[in-house]
Structure of Heparinase II/III family protein:
Amino acid sequence: MALAAGSTTRLWTLVAREFWRKTRRRLRAGPIYRWRYSGRTPERVLIAPPDLRLADPQIALEIYYGRYPLSGHMVETGGKSPFQIDVPNRGWQKTLHGFRWLRHMRAAGTELAAANARALVSDWIALHGNQISGVAWEPGTTAKRVIAWLQHSSVVLQGAEFPFYRAFLKSLAMQIRYLRSMAREMPDGKDRLRARVALAFAALSLPAPASALRSATRNLAEELDHQILPDGGHISRNPMTVLELLADLLPLRQTYANQAEAPPPALINAIDRMLPALRFFRHQDGSLARFNGMGATIHDRIATILRHDDTVGAPLLHAPHSGYERLSMGGVTVIADTGTPPPVDVSNAAHAGCLAFELSSGRQHFVVNAGIDTYGAAEFRPLARATAAHSTATVNDTSSARFSHSLRVSDLLGSPLIGGPQHVPCKRIDQKGVHGFVARHDGYAARFGFLHERELKLTENGNVLTGRDRFLRPGGGAIRNNGRDFVTVRFHIHPDIGLLQDEQDRLMLTASQGDTWVFTCAEVAPEIEESIYFAGLGGPRRSRQIVLAFKASEIAEVNWQLTRTNIAGYPENN
């Protein structure tokens, strides 16, 4: 389908802007600018900031033997330096050059691990330190490397001789000057914020004039105010981004304190908003809801971050700026997407999942979205981002938002979301014993002439989730029977859940060590179809989905219900 004129104009404006950014970036990496990155070498590292990311000494041992398990891929170097071999996986390359894996050497705590860390840093300096090009010098990767080198400088410099010590600090200073030059040229999003974080770490961790710290602090505060929403979400609407940024912002706050410097109020306020937001997206088992780029959750990572949350109260139920709603009672959690798409320039991972929801009961997920395979093949990403991969309604097998798949665009911007709902009004309908909301979106209005409205209510101490999906014309009136009114409402079921249909057309959703839920619909007989769950820790898994298929001109409203009939294997007392 052709793009709307407004979407086309906006997209090509972004393409032109990114082309200009890359041109300026190449100029700044060239010989004319390179002299700007030379200068005085710091004498020492004043402080090694803490690192909250999980570390595994076994990975340090794997790396010592030339096996690099990075970004979901294992690469054996055969005795060569990893910086000398050509690995086609871009994610693996970015992780290698980001150096976050130094934390595993720190966790090993041995002289052998420290010597290996020092040797690998020395290899990087020799092979890439003066060649400002390629993945190694992408500003986002450089920001990660600067933070990692500072955080793990005590390991890298353990037992180092003076020539290496000097080379390390000289390279670090050069990278910091390069990043300072590039930060303003970076596109909007988490990489630009991380660059500001890296520069603040550098100003605190290395001898620097007070003016450098003031400038880094001011730029960091401006970026936080821009990217962190009032309810603690990120402008990309990706729950994983909140987790990733907190893993950098919390150590930065601690570093300000350790250096007896006052952190900017914007940093304190952002963290205070983001910790409750992270808990908002969290199900009972500790995993994050699969919306807008979220894949598999490593539970210990979240637990490590949430140890710094002093509020320890019940999560918020309403995140209007991020565009999400939460219903929670009786050990049941429902999280729903009720927002418009993020801005185009931060939408490269965004999904067409408006009004989709997830349901967990106890520590078991029942209704889910497909999520993404974080380290899997790129060709599956469009499937995971489509509306059909979410527990919501699709019209005529079409997503409620559109993505750019142009090769000319993808070289510069990836695959941004360029069309979708413009208005998603949402109203809470909470009462005593009821958590609920009603929302509608216009993602199908321009193409098919009608709106999708969804109402969800969680009642009876979490034992009943009642849903109503309506399809209506913006100005009222009946939906036309024109062959463009076919609706499919999907409920993707987690792969660990058993799904059976009884003689009364009721669908039984059973967990082996958990609750049992029954799905019913008054207007349409539910069907069971195959599905795929992308967000498994071990990669994609086969799953199933409940499907309600009908013509909106014949059935403009469906009422369905999920009822918990067993709690942890014990029948309810009625």
